[in-house]
Structure formats: structure tokens, C-alpha cells
Amino acid sequence: MAKPKSIATKKFQRRDFMEQELAYSFHLGSDKNKSKLAKKVAKENLSGTTSLSNNAIQNAKDLSDVNKHNLRYFDNQTELIRTIYGTSDIVNDVKQVYWDEFEQARIEYNNKQTREDRKIEDYFKKVCDSQNDIACEIIIELGDMDFWNDKDERYRFKMVDVYNEQVKDLIKIIPDFKIANATIHFDEVSPHMHIVGVPVSYDCKRGMKKQVVKSKLFTKTTLTQIQDKMRNACIKSFNKFYDMDFKLKEKQKGRNQDINVKDMGDYRKIKKQLAKKEQKLEKANTQIKELYNTGNDVNKILDNLKPTLMNKNNIVISSESVQKLKNYTKDVKNITKTVRSVNDLNMAIKDFEHSVFKIEKENRSLKYQLELKDDEIDSLKGELSTKDKIIGKLQVEKEKLKQELHKFKDFWHSIMKYFHKRICYDKDENYKIVSKDLYKNGIFTDDENEIANDITRKVEPKEDIEKSKTKKKDNFELK
């Protein structure tokens, strides 16, 4: 009897992937994700991280949470977690970086202080209390779910070599980012690496000369440059260790996004079902081995059968052998049923994962469109801010013009009063001639000409007289 193969056994075989393209992600933690929405998204995601990128590390509790998540303290699959830089305690790793990088600067700063209350006893604690980032987390991922879905454990674990080189590349590209810990996760859809480090700034003008400053090291421009260098280095390392000639997918905005779909709960249920079925699968493999051994026994029984003396067509078989044959038939039926159920579930999982991959692509496209809209909104906000400044300046100028206009009105009122006096009371013909000339040339209006030449008119423009009448009327009605 031929020796059976275990169900769902995969062997890595080198295939021609000359035209294959891999996606690359480089996430940097952001304090924009400290929101209820971000936490909700993180809860619903497969990796347990937020789709808005990993959160910033702003205090000791955040760092402790990173330690628990990255090292999987509450999971049983610790063999699928590989720390390649640092120790099994990320909190202590970060504190060690603080000691190595800032202790001398702290001592020098304290020596210059004349007041005890200004001295820094513990720089790590001081940064924690300030609510600034005490460390940064970077997540690096090469290849998406569609690529890694059918790869066996041996193939996946070769990524240790690739990610080891990524750590070295990161140290060369950003020497001021002091890495405390680097841990690879093999227990999720695709192997990815969590790097925790401390951004260091030198020659600071205020406080210690050497400090933790994330904003100087990671700007929008420098982050883009870092990502470009890291992604190119990563694909070179991958091709070297896997003996391939893969290319990188074109860099897209919004790539740094976890799968974020509402029906992730269904996916988790199926994964739980799969875990249960995997136990059945293991049991089925054991049964197959037992069946193989039983099959050999059955062959021996059949080989040892002898015809009866009375009739050569009749064969003598013991009741024990009959029972063995019955048990063998029953085992075959049971195993066939088990194998079918497991294979059906495997097919369902593959179909669902393919659907999730499609949704992920759609999400990336939507995220990209959303970022374009965000850029457009930022641009419009910039224009609006510029226009607000212009409006502000115009309002200031308007107020100045109002003041000038009031001054001019007072001055013009004085002129009209003077003309009225000289023409109506002093009977000065020269002023009368000037008044007519001003009216003829359009300098005096009808109202102003009337004021200058009519003794019954008050020395006030008509609109001021009307306003005065309206005010008196309102006061009378109130009484």
C-alpha cells in the first residue's frame, strides 16, 4: 500500500516570478490617531492596529501597550514573534537608549543650573510628563495578503534576513533615529516588522543640548525621502535572499493603510472555524497514518486467506479478521467525510480572503481619493486664510478712510458754514460769484448750493436733517 500524503501539505518550489510586483509599506506613528474613531478602527482591524497608521508613543503607558502588542504577551503563538534587535522588554530597551543618549547632556544641563527646581532628575520621566512623543514606532511591510496567502512557513521566515537588512539600512539612512527594538510578526496575514526608536536632536538652544525631538527628524519632505530609500533597499534585499527578480509596485498615496472593512467580524469567525478545523485536520492526518497501518494488516489478511478443502471457491476467514475489515471500511468513510469538510472550509476561506483583498484595494483607492480631497481642502484653507488676511487689511484701511472722511466732512461743513455766512448775512458778492462758479463746475451739489445761498436753510446736508427728524420721531414714540 502506497504511503499517504498528509492533507494540506505545502512544499516551496521556485517559480518564475520575473514580472511579480510587491507592495511596500512604511508607517510612522502619528499623534493624530488618538481619537475614538482611530481606536474603533484598530479594534476592528486584523492586526489590531489603526488604519490611520500606528499611534504615537507619548507616555509610559503607550510604550507599555506597544510592548504588550509587539511581543504578544497575551497570545500563545510566541514562536511566530521574532525579535531581531533589542530584548524581550521594549520599555527597558527605550530607557536604555535614553540613558546612552541623554544622560551626559542631562548632567551638563544640571551643572549650569543655580536653582534646584530647574534641575532634571529623570529625563525619561520628564518627557513622559510633557505629553510629547517619547519614542516613535515604524511598521515596515513587504508584500500584501494576496502575495503571502499561499506561502509556507519556511518561505515566510526567510523575511528575517530581509528585515535584518532593513534595520541596518534604517540606521544608515537616519542615524539620528536611535533604534531600541525591532520585532517581526509572522502570526498575521503578511510578515511585518515593528521598529521602536528614539529621534534625537542635537545643539538645542533651550534646555538640554541633546533632546528628543520628532518634528525635526520626521518632516513631510524627509519622511518621503526616507520611504523612497527604504523601499528600494528592501526589494534589493528580498531579491538577494529569495533569489528572485521582483519589482516594487508603484508608490501610491494612502498605501500605508491596514485592511479596514465593516465585515471583519465575519472574517474572524471563519478564522476561528478554521482553527477548529485545523485540529480536525491534524486528527485526520493521524487517522490516515493509522489507516495506512490497518491497510497493511488487511493486505496480510487477504494474502493469508486459504480455500476450504470442500470447495476451492470458498475461503475461510476468522471472525476477528471480518471485524478488522469492517472497522477498516468504517474508518475510510469517516476520514473521507472529515477530509471533505476540511477541504470545503479551506475553499471558503480562500474565497473570502480573495474578497477581502479586493475590498482592501478599493479602500486604498478611496483613501487615495480622500487624501487628494484633503490636499484640495488644505489648499482652499490656505487661500481662505490669505483672503482673510486681505479682508483684515482692507477693514483696517476702511476704518482709516472713515476717520479721514469724518475729518473731511467736518472741514467741508466749516466751509459751507463760512459761505452761508458770507453770502446770506454779509452779502459778499465775491463769495456769491465763487459759489455759482463752484456749482457750475459740479463741485457744489444742489443741496450745498442751496445751503450757501438760502438764508432759511440750516448749515447741514439734507441726509443729516432727515436723520435728525427720524431720531426725534423715534424718541417721541417711545415717550
The radius of gyration computed from the alpha-carbon positions, rounded to a whole number of angstroms, is: 42 Å
Low confidence ranges: 7-18, 32-39, 41-54, 254-265
- Specify the structural class: alpha+beta
Strand content: 5-15%
**Structurally, how many domains make up the residues?**
3
Compute the number of helices: 14
Task: State the end-to-end CA separation.
Answer: 119 Å
Q: Tell me, what is the CATH class of the largest domain?
A: Alpha Beta
CATH architecture of the largest domain: 2-Layer Sandwich
What portion of residues is helical? 55-70%
Morphology: elongated
- Major sheet: 6 strands, antiparallel
Number of strands: 10
The run of helices and strands is: EEHHEHHEHHHEEEHHEHEEHHHH
User: Could you say what the CATH topology of the largest domain is called?
Assistant: BirA Bifunctional Protein, domain 2
Could you tell me the mean pLDDT? Answer: 75
Quick structural gist:
By secondary structure, this protein is of the alpha+beta class. Helix content is 60%, strand content 10%. The strands form 3 sheets. Strands 2, 3, 4, 5, 6 and 7 form a 6-stranded antiparallel sheet that branches.
Task: Supply database-style keywords.
two-stranded parallel ribbon, 10 strands, 3 domains, 6-stranded antiparallel β-sheet, BirA Bifunctional Protein, domain 2, 60% helix, alpha+beta
